[in-house]
Amino acid sequence: MAYFDIPTIDVSPFIRSEENEEGKKKAIEQMREACVNYGFFQIANHGIPLELLSRIMDMYKTFFASSDDEKLSVPSDNYFKSTKKSAGTYEQLLFHLSSSGFNVCPENPPHIKNDQARDFLLGIYYSPATEAENVGKSAHKDPGCITILYQAEVGGLQVHKDEQWIPIAPSKDKLEVNIGDVIQVLSNNKFKSATHRVIRPRETNRYSCAFFYNVQGDKWVEPLPQCTKEIGESPKYRGFLFKEYVQLRQRDETHPPARPED
Length: 262
Known about the structure:
single chain, oxidoreductase, Oxoglu/Fe-dep_dioxygenase_dom, metal ion binding
């Protein structure tokens, strides 16, 4: 399989203690270009220990290998199993991240604590593809601000660009980053929320872990003045409350609007 070489950005200038203003400027410009042209990029030298990333993936594997009774002890808002025609296509476990201390974790694994907030961590398990069907997650865009994904060494992530689906190479020491609809609106369509999907591989399970950074639900979202009136451009989007937009997105998944522009 040929992999598409999306931009890889060295973010170490933001992590190391020594001053490196030139390195920061270079990384910022690379991110800007990636958001304009792709909506996707990889980050290298991010400072997260591989041992920690591996431990997180192992904890998700432990949960997804547990009994159905244990999985169903988790509230339905946190655990989901695909009910598509190909039952068992994927399962996901969601952890809200805040300081509320509200714990809805299963006992197995015991290492993760869970609470409620705008941002969340999502672990996903995909069963191996069959000859008849291999879709893990169908084509979609993320509604929030930024998504950071770790797909380790088993690929499957694909990005839609130039009228084709392009696979993104997995890497145990890199993270994939994509921007969501909120950033596209704030930038007045200068930065693109990329359409992406997951194709399940043959003969192996696939696990991934994604962090979703969002705005608070009661925040008003509209094109920024720096991207509209201050540069003489008209807004391309109406303003909206983020929570109402998410609700509309969820409704449209089950009841798509008759007009594509809606």
